[in-house]
Write a structure and sequence with these properties.
With 263 residues, the protein is α/β, with parallel strands linked by helices. The protein has seven helices and eight strands. β1, α1 and β2 form a beta-alpha-beta unit. The chain binds NADP nicotinamide-adenine-dinucleotide phosphate.
Length: 263
Amino acid sequence: MEQLKAKLAVVTGASSGIGAAIVRDLIAAGLIVIGLARRYERMEALRQELSTDEQRARFHAIKCNIADGRDVAEVFTRIIRDHGPVYVLVNNAGCFRFGQLATMDECEVQEVLQTNVMGVVNCTRHVFAAMRAHSIDGHVILINSICGHKVPVISDAMPILNIYPATKFALTAINEIYRQEFKGLGTRVKVTDVELKLVVGNSLGSERFVYQRTGAAEICPVFELIMHSTNPKEALRKQICNTSIEYCTATHTHATTYKHIDK
Ligand SMILES: NC(=O)c1ccc[n+]([C@@H]2O[C@H](COP(=O)([O-])OP(=O)(O)OC[C@H]3O[C@@H](n4cnc5c(N)ncnc54)[C@H](OP(=O)(O)O)[C@@H]3O)[C@@H](O)[C@H]2O)c1
């Protein structure tokens, strides 16, 4: 990620989980990072945990509800005015509500759709406009899920995923739409779909991941993990973010898609 040192990245959903891990990795790689989430205090806590004053100075937390189009417009206008155009946008924020689509409250369904789909569309529109205006070969990353390709069947259990897989299927389509549009609009902006699946086997310490490049014959040996850790989920998240984001940002093709497969 040498070429991205001191360049600006925005990570949505920076207040917890995968987004917080991505922030740490991009900061460690030398980028200036703006984190967006509703829980500002958690992002501030993340800032305090960074290891040096120099790193803390490169991380900025901004409160933003990505499901609210007006909030997103105001925040990105401020970001671009104060920090300049964004080079990397990591669309990570997402939400999930338990329930059955056939019976659950309409507002909860709407919230998931608005966050997981329209949040991505709104953030990307503002970032892309600035990338295009400044002729930046930027990169838009979509943090997707294996649920974006196949609705899991959990036998003998009440289905609980409701609208969530539909929002992730939408991201799969949006990835391809952006690929065509970014090219068709004469830019060199890349889009990458990172499909995550967390699999916890019988033993908590055993988790196995392989990323495969779609559309190409080779299996990219990006990483394969068999973890033995006291906190496998956090360690795994860190590895996923570190490796997949670094790999994605290091590619030079016009657009790339990585498919995660479980061996
Ligand atoms: N963990 C997994 O097993 C897994 C597997 C496949 C895909 N993914 C995907 O990976 C991404 C991150 O997942 P995670 O496990 O790290 O989830 P998480 O720990 O629940 O974090 C979700 C993040 O999204 C933010 N967010 C949610 N709604 C938002 C809104 N309206 N506006 C702004 N920020 C919002 C939250 O911040 P605030 O609440 O502070 O706003 C939080 O920072 C999601 O897109 C998820 O679908 C996760």
